[in-house]
Design a protein that fits this description.
The protein has about 290 residues and is of the alpha/beta class. Helices cover about 35% and strands about 20% of the residues. It has 11 helices and 10 strands.
Length: about 290
């Protein structure tokens, strides 16, 4: 790979997003940004996370515009999955701030973030392998069923109607992903590439605005990677999604993503257009030369 020394203008990853007015109350849901500005789909600013004496994130920052497919790259230990967990609410941050569509979310529980449109897949498939494909996908619409334990025990009509709607939507999601024929199959018996699509269908059941994909190309064959990339493009347009993905497969990232962010030791090394990042000498030296 040719290294160019031409100057690259990267956006300062630590510049505060002045559009976001921070609300610090843990009880409040969020605060809306100024109406005069267009909010970013995702804004992560100077986020720090420590596990004991280890700094998993040390000032990670990124800005993703609405409708963009953003790739988050870096070697193992760079903090990519930790950052995903911070955005989705599985890991609390020590400092910094995270906002989606102009709303601060870092003080919200995971279920509240899901209601605001955050959905994700996992590096290691999060499917219930003994359940059917349809049952797994329906779990993605669990928030719509509601009703509580009493309603479920009594099989109240309202709950039954909700379950039928969720089932119908799950079948539609499987059809759109191209795996409707596997609806009744046991998830754990399917090929790995098909299980990846099942998890994606389940994530779509939450009606996301921001979709986080953790290593979507991991374990896929060459032909499957190209098909999956095309599927992601299609879903982005069909559902009007903003997508952020963690991935080690550089060809997949550079061909699919509009914007790329590079993490190094828990901090943002560079971010910008794929061609800019591809030719940044720091990125080439630290990552792309050793990537798959």
């Amino acid at each position: 790979m040719r290294v160019t020394t031409a100057a690259i203008n990267f956006k300062d990853a630590t510049t505060p997003d002045r559009a976001v007015r921070i609300h610090t109350s843990a009880q409040a849901t969020t605060e809306q940004i100024s109406a005069s500005a267009t909010p970013q789909a995702l804004s992560v600013q100077d986020v720090h996370v420590r596990f004991g004496g280890v700094a998993a994130l040390a000032g990670a920052s990124l800005a993703v515009q609405t409708g963009v497919i953003c790739g988050l790259i870096g070697p193992n230990g760079a903090g990519k999955t930790t950052l995903f967990n911070c955005v989705s609410g599985l890991t609390a941050i020590d400092s910094g701030r995270i906002a989606i569509a102009g709303y601060r979310i870092d003080d919200l529980p995971a279920h509240a973030r899901a209601r605001l449109g955050v959905s994700r897949t996992f590096q290691n498939l999060g499917l219930y392998q003994e359940m059917s494909v349809l049952e797994n996908v329906m779990l993605g619409g669990h928030a719509e069923i509601g009703g509580g334990l009493l309603a479920a025990a009594l099989r109240l009509p309202g709950l039954a109607r909700h379950e039928r709607r969720v089932r119908e939507r799950a079948l539609m999601a499987l059809d759109e992903i191209g795996i409707a024929a596997f609806a009744d199959a046991i998830a754990g018996t399917l090929p790995y590439g098909t299980m990846k699509r099942v998890e994606l269908a389940r994530a779509l059941m939450a009606r996301p605005k921001l979709l986080l994909l953790d290593e979507p190309a991991g374990g896929l064959a060459h032909g499957e990677i190209e098909e999956f990339a095309e599927l992601v493009r299609t879903l982005r347009h069909r559902y009007v999604l903003t997508i952020v993905l963690v991935e080690h497969h550089m060809k997949f990232v550079m061909a699919l993503c509009d914007h790329v962010v590079v993490l190094h030791l828990g901090a943002t090394l560079a971010q910008g257009r794929p061609d800019d990042v591809r030719h940044d000498p720091r990125v080439i030296a630290a990552y792309l030369g050793a990537a798959r």
